Amino acid sequence: MDKEATRKGFGKALVELGELNDKVVALSADLTESTSCKEFKEKYPDRYMEMGVAEQNSIGVAAGLSFTGYIPFVTSFAVFMPNRCLDQIRVSVAYNNANVKIVASHAGLVTGHDGATHQALEDISIMRSIPNMTVVVPCDFTEAVKATKTIAYREGPCYLRLMREKTPKITDENTRFDVGVANVMRDGEDITIIACGEMVSAALEAAERLQEENISVAVVNMHTIKPIDKECILGYAEKTKAIVTAEDHQVNGGLGSAVSEVVSSENPIVVKRVGVQDRFGQSGTAEELMKEYNITVEDIINEVRNAISAAKK
Amino acid sequence: MDKVENIEKLKSISKEIRLSIMSMLHEAKSGHSGGSLGMTDVFTTLFFNVMNHNPEDPKWEDRDHFILSNGHICPVLYSTLAEAGYFSKDELKTLRKFGSRLQGHPSRTDFDLVETSTGPLGQGILVAAGMAKGLKMQNKNNKIFVSSSDGEHQEGATWETLMFAAKHNLDNLIVFIDRNQIQIGGNTEDIMEMESLADKLRAFNWNVIEADGHNYEEILKAFNQAKENKGKPTTIIFKTTIGKGVSFMEGDYEWHGKAPNDEEYQKAVEEINNG
Predict the structure, then answer these.
(1) Taking Cα atoms as reference points, which of A174, A221, A154 lies closest to residue A194?
(2) Is this complex scored with an ipTM above 0.85?
(3) Mean pLDDT of B255-260
(4) How many domains does chain B have?
(5) pLDDT tens digit sequence for B150-185
(6) Does residue A158 sit in the same domain as residue A216?
(7) Domain presence at residue A174
(8) Are A57 and B133 an interchain contact pair (Cβ–Cβ within 8 Å)?
(9) What percent of chain A is modeled with pLDDT above 90?
């Protein structure tokens, strides 16, 4: 399958947005190349700001720029933004309801060799707890392009979570993307897997393999963690016996929690959560780490089986 | 609005503002008295002489912008805005109360006269620098005035912005510092030495002006110099006395975050009226 990184999708969309709208500006906390802003910088140097290693100021300045009519995309790694500048995000962006787009790359364990300090595994949890914040996690390159363009014209604060690694292209130009509306990638009758980011392709593979055992699995791409698509979750809570969530993130507070919250208050069924289980990451290849932390296709398949037996009780 | 040039007139306005501050804090039973009184002379001069703004048209496009980076001294901002005619002085009594626009720390989404929400130190200056940059990118001439505290300059984020503003030659950005040497826990020089603040700011390539924050001639001169300055952002270090105008509050860090009780309020009003 053709592969490309979601951060590259953001970079492509940013340049296109720059052409369409002269109010689009971009800021980088000294990670221009890594966050795929190089082309925008070269094409629109007057609308590009090198902020230095200063995430707090980057966020504050972005809020100020938004108050003068600009649409700022402020970029860094997901371990630094939100963490290093959370107070500025909470007050200057979210409490102000400022039209700032926070774009964080290199999220998740797949970031690999850099080790635990550089593997953002808490960012979804942090960002979805902040009022006014929209949280979007594109599943592939093409969805990242669409997500970037969509949030540019959606008034208000937004967090866009991106990956460094190339991941399979599983959507195309015709796949619909609306903030807050989940994409059903595959329908099913027995169990539902709800995934985000690169785990959506793993979920599809798991569903494919389970089909061979006559287990019918639905796969939902929950690209928007907040506002979460309750209708979709509750529809599948009704239709299928159990839900398995999958994310490259801590299960505490992440997608798994978000789905569990909806299900537990409206229609309690079994929810099994695949993701990082309250541990820090470490150095290694993406494959080694996914295996060590139990977030592979095999792990999703195992959890589907566990969910089926738990649901029978 | 029309500029008040007469210094005696400015002083009499400041008296009204100090009375409002005491009254609203007494009513609220909590809040920050010391810094609010200490900055009253600077705020009076700024809003009644220096800044271009119009209470009849608060969102006037060519207005100068004001940001209260040390959000905790919002009683002086609210009182000054009411005195300038933006809203009725009666509303000042709602400070810190449920449903009020006058939140305990300024809130942009609750009160549209607030340009950015502040409270946590090291935020207003950052946003102000972004606004200054945004206005420059659009070739606009509005100035951004920022009130900040000396303690706020202990925040690392503030220095990130100082670098940014100098790099971008934001001469439309004027940050003034309430140098009362007091922070919540005591004297700034005991808690975390800041001197020489002026040298540090000069080293960050800012235009630095020092003035007495209770001397109207000096305040006016400092702001006018700041407005004419080209090529660099400006900071004005106003030497002030916390609690200015109420003798038992003056110079006492205990009054950083306290409101007057009934007796203290009566005494404060008497002193301000006789001052």
Answers:
(1) A221
(2) yes
(3) 96
(4) 1
(5) 999 999 999 999 999 999 999 999 999 999 999 999
(6) no
(7) no
(8) no
(9) 98
In a domain, B2, yes or no: no
* Sheet of A224-226, strand order: A48-50, A24-28, A71-77, A101-105, A158-161, A134-136, A224-226
Q: A161 and A49 in one domain?
A: yes
Whether B1 maps to a domain, the answer reads no
Tell whether A129 and A42 lie within a shared domain.
yes
Question: Mutating which of A96, A100, A130 best tests the B interface, going by the most B Cβ atoms within 10 A?
Answer: A96
CB-hemisphere CA count at 13 Å for A123? 36
Tokens of A191: 């169990």
Q: Which of A4, A33, A55, A198 is labelled catalytic?
A: A55
**Amino acid occupying residue B263:** E
Alpha carbons A59 and A282: distance in angstroms, whole number: 28
A41 sits in which H/E element: helix A38-43
Beta-bridged to residue A271, according to DSSP, are A243
Let me know if residue B172 belongs to a domain: yes
Q: Is A37's Cβ below 8 Å from some Cβ in B?
A: no
For residue A57, list chain B residues with Cβ-Cβ distance below 8 A. 126, 129, 157, 160-161, 163-164
DSSP state, residue A90: I
Mean pLDDT of A295-308: 98
Choose among A234, A236, A181, A217: nearest CA to A301: A217
pLDDT of A313 > 80? The answer is no
CA distance A133 to A102: 10
Nearest to A217 by CA among A246, A188, A241: A188
How far apart CA A120 and CA B270 sit, in angstroms, is 59
The mean per-residue pLDDT over the stretch A149-156 comes to 98
- Sequence-distant (6+) residues with CB within 8 A of A201 are A1, A139, A140, A167, A168, A170
Q: Where are the beta strands (DSSP E) in chain B?
A: 65-68, 144-149, 173-179, 182-183, 186-187, 207-212, 234-239
> What six digits make up the tokens of B257?
């975050």
What pLDDT digit, counting tens, does each position of B47-75 carry? 999 999 999 999 999 999 999 999 999 99
Q: Which of A64, A66, A91 is facing B129, going by the closest CB pair? A: A64
| CA distances in angstroms from A35 to A12, A52, A106, A307, listed in the order given | 11, 14, 8, 38
- The reported pLDDT for the residue numbered B1 is 87
B245 and B217 Cβ atoms separated by less than 8 Å? no
Question: Active site includes A55?
Answer: yes
Look up residue A153 and give its two tokens. Answer: 């014209």
Summarised one tens digit per residue, pLDDT across range A49-60 is: 999 999 999 999
Mean pLDDT of B92-118: 98
Give the residue-averaged pLDDT of B78-90: 98
| Total domain count, chain A | 2
Give the structural domain span for B32: 7-274
Given a cut of 80, is residue A152 above it in pLDDT? yes
Q: pLDDT tens digits for B190-230? A: 999 999 999 999 999 999 999 999 999 999 999 999 999 99
- Name every residue whose Cβ is closer than 8 Å to that of residue B100 and which is 6 or more positions away in sequence: B91, B94
Question: Using CA atoms, how far apart are residues B235 and A218, in angstroms rounded to an integer?
Answer: 61
